[in-house]
């Protein structure tokens, strides 16, 4: 295939690694309402509850491993090199641990925290979030894009979508914007759009739907692109 390939992943690609998705039964948002734990207002109102929510997710992530779908996307990156970009909505580090390099974690990273000081120091955090910034003493927050905040690297993303010949979205329910709108931008740019997911997600602009668990269908799909 000529031209660039852009992949968007969501929580479904990490499900087989034991990471809860957001909207499936017993999903993450079931016990913790979004507006309480994933908005700046929620953090302002009850920082301890928000910090505990992310500290707990870091503990779960420590025992998780990348699955065959993560590894298949690394192989795809090796095949397409500079013509490949992976955009993930996920804040886990499973893509990175599998070896993905050309990756944009557009909703932030669970294993990073940043301070609320002027310099917004960003640092690694694998356990509980520190009380104060070790650099400047300011309060800390998860390095996560909450609802109402602007995702990272949107310009770079828009450019890649405008140039791509193949756009695949994997393991995402297509509920959260602006990520949910990427398939439309890609389609309007002339790309072929493929959905790989456990369930069919609406929203149109999709040329092909491949149903199944990511760990099964993604490696097969990548092999077919060789
Ligand atoms: C923004 C970090 C302005 C937190 C997250 C009304 C209409 C349209 C938009 C809005 C609206 N009101 C408000 C908005 C904007 C809002 C939004 O979209 N709200 C939604 C709920 C309506 N968006 C924002 O606020 C965004 N910011 O808009 O800023 C702006 C933007 C651009 C330029 C200028 C200004 C910020 C959104 C980011 C929020 N943060 N995450 C955290 O992780 O704690 S979002 C959160 O949802 C995660 O990142 C998650 O990845 C993401 C999306 O969910 P999915 O990944 O899709 O997960 P889900 O569980 O939903 O689905 C899993 C799928 O996998 C399912 O389909 C399932 O069938 C499938 N699956 C399950 N198992 C498997 C599988 N598939 C394959 N194999 C399996 N084994």
Overview of this protein structure:
This protein is globular. The strands form 2 sheets. Strands 3-2-1-7-8-9 form a 6-stranded parallel sheet, sandwiched between helices. A 3-stranded antiparallel sheet has the order 5-4-6, with helices on one face. The longest helix is centred in the first third of the chain and has 16 residues, at 47-62. The chain has 226 residues and is of the alpha/beta class. It has 9 helices and 9 strands. The chain has helices spanning 28-31, 34-37, 40-45, 47-62, 68-80, 94-98, 154-163, 182-188, 214-224; strands spanning 4-9, 84-88, 103-105, 108-115, 122-124, 140-144, 164-170, 192-197, 208-211. Strand 7 (164-170), helix 8 (182-188) and strand 8 form a beta-alpha-beta unit. It starts with a strand and ends with a helix. 37% of the residues are buried. The site of ligand BV8 has 37 residues, from loops. Ligand BV8 is lined by residues 10-12, 15-16, 21-24, 27, 38, 89-91, 107, 144-151, 154, 171-173, 175-178, 197-199, 201, 213-214.
